[in-house]
Amino acid sequence: MRNLGATTMTDPLRILLLEDSPTDEELVGRALARGGIEATMQRVQTEADFRAVLTGTSPQVVLADYNVPGFRGDTALQIARAVAPELPVIFVSGTIGEELAVELVKNGATDYVLKDRLERLPFAIRRALDEAEQRAARRRAEQAERRGAETLTVALEASQMGTWDWNVSTGELEWSDRCKALFGIPVDEPMNYGRFLRAVHLDDRSRTDAAIIHSLAEKLPHDLEYRAVWPDGTVHWIAAKGRAFYDESSGRPVRMAGTAMDITARKLAEEQRKLAEGKMQETQRLESIGVLAGGVAHDFNNLLTGVIGNTSLALNDLPKSSPLYPCLEQIEEAAQRAAELCRQMLAYAGKGQFVVQNVELSGLVRETTQLLESSIAKGVILQMDLATDLPAVRADITQLRQVVMNLVLNASEAIIGGGTVRVATGLRLADSAEPAVPDLPVGDYVFLEVLDTGRGMTPETLAKIFDPFFTTKFTGRGLGLAAVQGIIRGHHGCLNVSSTPDHGTTFQVFLPCVGARPHRPRTAPTDAAGWRGSGTVLVVDDEAVMRVVAGRMLEKMGFRVVFAEDGLQAVERFRAECDSIRAVLLDLTMPHLDGAGTFRELRQLRPEVPVLLMSGYNEQEAIRGFLGLGLAGFLQKPFTAADLGARMKEILR
Questions:
Q1: What percent of the chain has a predicted confidence (pLDDT) above 70?
Q2: Which of 258, 523, 554, 606 could be 559's S-S partner, Cβ–Cβ 3.0 to 4.6 Å?
């Protein structure tokens, strides 16, 4: 049995694939298989075939390329929305732009996945199925509510409601057998107003009593909803209506009569619907913030390359005795911190297809906490309970170290005066009868637990701690837990938190484990300082500051530099100087013709030319579309002159 998010199936997932390329169909199938999704795909490329499969075989998911000859993706989306409004539609395209993608989502598309990032497709499908299940649950709740209203009508017609009659002057209260059953009271038990109030939930008792007294005083009918507690402790919702009758001569109330009925089912349906709506709104809010954060971080990386690159050039030219040297060092340090913030934002945005390797969690935690000992608040005792012989987890060491540092420092700062921070690791074995955590598939998980004896959090604060820029500390510290959550999600894990005011907080991180041995760090690459080159290098980037700083660095190394503002101009420049260009420094994301398209055109003109790809995204994500095509190397933005020199030395040796 396969588990796809909240949707559990025994049969393969039925997928309708709108795609004109058999090769891309095969790539999609491989991505699904690697992601653990068993599926049967039916590929079509015409409107007639699309309609026929849509209405004939009832697919569970539609995967659609946007640019299919003679049949565009937006038309397919309109047809799918008309025929099957709740059917998830995910665009899988290599040409779709950010603005078009947002427009498609507004028009009803569930998600979009770029063809050079197909590893994200299984998770997009799981999320789409989860959201479809949530919508179905909400519809079921609404249907249950409607059925409850219909049941109420039938009950009224058949007089199935409980009735009661209260003698105000004597306090005697007559209840029908049906009314007593609504409160779980035995039929032979005598009733009075005091016994009625004792049956009402303590939290609703004062409000209910006040409403009835007000009804008597103001000569108004009352219509109440309150909870009744049965003798066995179970809680049931009651809807009660009543009105008073008065003595004509004195105007005093003589009696009050009314009805009562059980509305527990309707209340539960309303609560389920609210929970489903709240979860959906939270998911949409986090996704929109993540897209914004990722875009800002990527663009900011380009600007930081200009700052860091020019600073490194100036530091190389200045003697260390210069009074400007410390100032430039501080500028470089601040820019590097800004670059780290960009990486955090990219992690929060879910861009974290990190440079993963097999990591032993206990060893990483031990090394990281040793670095933190001087930063932990005075009076705080750090206790370690680290399991040995843990299986490895697939993780990016830098990102995982950031998680540990953030959680431990937060725990330390939550303690006032003195207290304890306990850091533990272990293994949680989970099967279908006892999953590790409800939000994760069945499997085995390595966990990290950080517990503090600090001041804890109220439920209101706990609900906001993962919001970007929310903080209970001084300004500038609010992105931490949002970034941590993004990193854990990017590693296919889960982050749980529990807290009670004055009783501390516990964070639990669950990561899927693998059976392989942990990674052994490699030795650092050799230094390329002082290396000189010769010949012509083509620099291709749509950001002017990137072209300028890269050109200065290359000229310092002895190269002649020519520039191109986008992919189309790069192809023309390369064609004009094809034989003299020794290497190409190529940006990944550009208008008109992106890095992947430019690379393919350059390889057609001269297959052996070394191409060094540069991007603000990490290497694993950036080069995914270049695997097996002969890419010479990768350069992470922002970079220094030394970074660029080392890469150029590698590709031209």
A1: 83
A2: 554
